[in-house]
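Blackboard transcription, Thursday session:
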Amino acid sequence: FSLDYQHVQVPFEITLWIMLASLAKIGFHLYNKLPSVVPESCLLIFVGLIMGGIIYGLNDRSPPVMDSDIFFLYLLPPIVLDAGYFMPSRPFFENIGTILLYAVVGTIWNVFGIGFSLYGICQVKAFRLQDVSLLHNLLFGSLIAAVDPVAVLAVFEEIHVNEKLHILVFGESLLNDAVTVVLYKLFRSFCEMPTIKSVDVFAGVGKFFVVGLGGVLVGLSFGFTAAFTTRFTKDIRVIEPLFVFLYSYLSYLTAEMFHLSGIVAIISCAMGMKRYVEANISLKSHTTVKYFMKMWSSVSDTLIFIFLGVSTIGENHEWNWPYICFTVIFCLIWRALGVLVLTFFVNRFHVNTITSKDQFIIAYGGLRGAICFSLVFLLPDFHRKKLFIAATTVVILFTVFVQGMTIRPLVDLLAVKRKRESAPTVGEQIHIRFLDHLLAGIEDISGHWGQYYWKDKLEYFNSKYLQKILLREYDQPKSSIVLLYEKLERKHAIELAQAGQLGHGPAQPSFLAVTTDQKLEDTPNPDVLDNMQEILARNLYRIR
Amino acid sequence: FSLDYQHVQVPFEITLWIMLASLAKIGFHLYNKLPSVVPESCLLIFVGLIMGGIIYGLNDRSPPVMDSDIFFLYLLPPIVLDAGYFMPSRPFFENIGTILLYAVVGTIWNVFGIGFSLYGICQVKAFRLQDVSLLHNLLFGSLIAAVDPVAVLAVFEEIHVNEKLHILVFGESLLNDAVTVVLYKLFRSFCEMPTIKSVDVFAGVGKFFVVGLGGVLVGLSFGFTAAFTTRFTKDIRVIEPLFVFLYSYLSYLTAEMFHLSGIVAIISCAMGMKRYVEANISLKSHTTVKYFMKMWSSVSDTLIFIFLGVSTIGENHEWNWPYICFTVIFCLIWRALGVLVLTFFVNRFHVNTITSKDQFIIAYGGLRGAICFSLVFLLPDFHRKKLFIAATTVVILFTVFVQGMTIRPLVDLLAVKRKRESAPTVGEQIHIRFLDHLLAGIEDISGHWGQYYWKDKLEYFNSKYLQKILLREYDQPKSSIVLLYEKLERKHAIELAQAGQLGHGPAQPSFLAVTTDQKLEDTPNPDVLDNMQEILARNLYRIR
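(Written on the board underneath:)
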């Protein structure tokens, strides 16, 4: 009897790590009180710290740090795909201007703010930091400034703030990837250049647009190809879900290959394909996609936080009190200032303003996470790299533990507006739709190219061209109201069947019984609803 | 703008191969006539041959062959897991004796038959094969004798023969893995030994039991651990499906690590965990497990056949007409003889005999596939390895193309009994259950330890101990009849909801309307059914 561990080592260890992560998750939930006080991300980092300590104690050398390649190629994409696929598109596009302002201008503000002020600290002779150049400080600023989508998602999913606030912080954390990629690579190449010409700086500015818009283009083209492919999967339902994953992942990898923003690409891909793919694939495939995506991103998320903890233990830190403390302080100050200034401008152009409570949560919710951590390890070797690693680790632990654990009590204390729990009623949906058409008409008449104008044009382009190419059974698609109705009916039917009432008792009026009880008798049946919707849509279009 | 392909190469190429496989599958189904004439496996090998030809033409060197590690560690487990998880347990256990006889004795018969007769061929001077020793011939016999589960599954899923015939061939192809592993490793180590003692031969015989039973033990222990784990996933439904995959894969890897039969382990794990896991996890998790497993195994299957085709092209073949032709002939003859002889004995002990038509299909369905192919590449280097590779390739292509393409017409021609399409009715289920209890009682009284006796004991052990440990909500579990009823009701409810009839028209009697119309009025409601079942079960037990 012999043991052949070598042979199975790679898959065996991967499976064991995933198993550990999953079991840790189960463990937390066995005690119901724990997750309600401490965010799961903190608990997972804590488990990682213990694991790292054990490995360190047993081997007497630093435990393996999280490989940046593994993080960027395998752990990050599932989380971002999940985020993009289930992104609520309405609030996202309604606030896209504000989100972009925070993501682009805000991140640049933070990078330069943190970079220059840390350079100022380095000039103090007593701190013995004079060998850290301005460029190195800016490089460090570029990696520490970006808010991390994984950390934000982990914390904000548990505190249930209102939809707008959530999308502002979360959207920023996703879209700032383009800025981070550009600035990080720019400063890194500047560090290796002998002299920097002004041409290089301008090329850097140009790159912003290339990296961001290139990501969007790559993502959309893969997304539409995915939708087109699912037109032909009617006879082999079994591999339908695969295409959603394959094309999104390819869009991410392609973007990374061309040094574009992979996160932006996968999000565009997911948002672009979603409505067409969902119309083409079967309901079971849809369930599989949905639950598998959630499962996968949850596992990735868990692994990332555990590895963060494991990687913290070890001997790759150089401790310098002033530099590390001032990094934390500057991260907080510059973000707060940035949010205040940018929101001031945003509020001047909007009726629905961002309140000061919201501003506080936006500033406070600027958590750092595994992206910074992976970027700092990717730095070229230079003599202060270990200082940067230490500072990054402290910032991440500070934001995840201190901010992550206090944000929920703060949200309660400030009475920040929460997310509404119930789905919009049919009446609300009709009104929202009606107002959309109305505002599009007003914008059209007044010659203002606002969001409703563009949304309307896009809808027109979609129904005129895209749907014909990308959908299998092309006829006037069911409106979201009818779909909602069908979903509620299905849910109700299953509940009835489970209670064993179907067909045994007298006929029960089931329509929308789930949401309201008064409406029961006078709600129209689906044909009437469909008709109503069609009249609304047709008449509002015809006027123009 | 630079391209960084190196960075993303590994995941990019894996994704592209999977994409190619999936698109090929879609392509075949676009023309409805094609898959009904040619089995998909043949088409996929054909695509692989073309791909291999292109790669060979472009690079002017042999395309990469399928890595045996990749095959055994990543491609095979999903297929076997799928097979084990959805194995119909009743026909499997009813025919376990026959299956084991075919798998163990039949495979040994084939190995020695093919090995010795090929050795005879090698003695003919004109063929110039005198340097191939008896041991090498036996080693070759041990890898070429085993029927391949992947190939069998691919062909038999399309021809829909009756359940018993299917389980005989398919069960044999799964369980012969233990025999193949033992004999292959035995002969390979004999090849490297200077002298062979009789002790080694006896140790080899002992290993059969260790490898087979060890696999079962490893599988069952992981299966029960998986079931136990899902007891605690109530609060985190999202990672439930993961445990099914993780534990099964771990059982496979652990078995491989200890040189046990991984296939046997993963099948025992899947069959052991299934009923408990299904009771513990949510319905959505169950759908995810089911569809993801099907998807994954379908993709693995596709990749295997494509790679088989790709690997065929190249310069690693040594052609020797007599050896290759006689290999094909001996494979056919020895299998036919083996099935005839073994079935003769089987039929003497059974009332429900295997007809001569069935015997023909069993013998003819002995397809070889990727397992042989991977094993032949794992052979230690010796001067006739390329001849063995060529012979294996020809046997695989012959069985998959010639036998795979003609088996469907033959099944039609012989009018082999087909699978019944409809699910058993409630009446049938009650009768089957009643007979089970009756036969268990008769066996008990007559002191005969037959299958019903053991099944009854196992059921008792299960409900007395296992269920209490492994199930979350332990109360008398619902019988399969009630579960079937609930499933039908749910289906019916969804259909009603989709037709928009729910709650609008008068109450329709829905119970079992899907299967029969006459029963409608007098069928009992679920409580009555439950009661009926309980009375049946209790009284039949109490008598003893």
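Lecturer's comment: The two ends of chain B are 83 Å apart (CA to CA).
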